[in-house]
Amino acid sequence: MREQAEASAGRLREEARRWTEQAEETWERAKQGDSEATSTLAKAAAVAGGVVTAGIVLSRLVRR
Description:
This protein is an all-alpha fold. The protein has one domain (2-63). Helices cover 92% and strands 0% of the residues. Helix 1 (2-31) crosses helix 2. The longest helix has 30 residues, at 2-31. The protein starts with a helix and ends with a helix.
């Protein structure tokens, strides 16, 4: 069980690293005026905001 957890954690770290690299590249493109990159960042921000909001709502529901 521990080995599976470690393997899963490794995969998650690798995926997070790839997402970070992609986000940095998109950010650089947006700073240079790439409208597609700017749109992508705006969508990502909206999704992140939705995730945070959902987390807050769920945590409040759990407390009840």
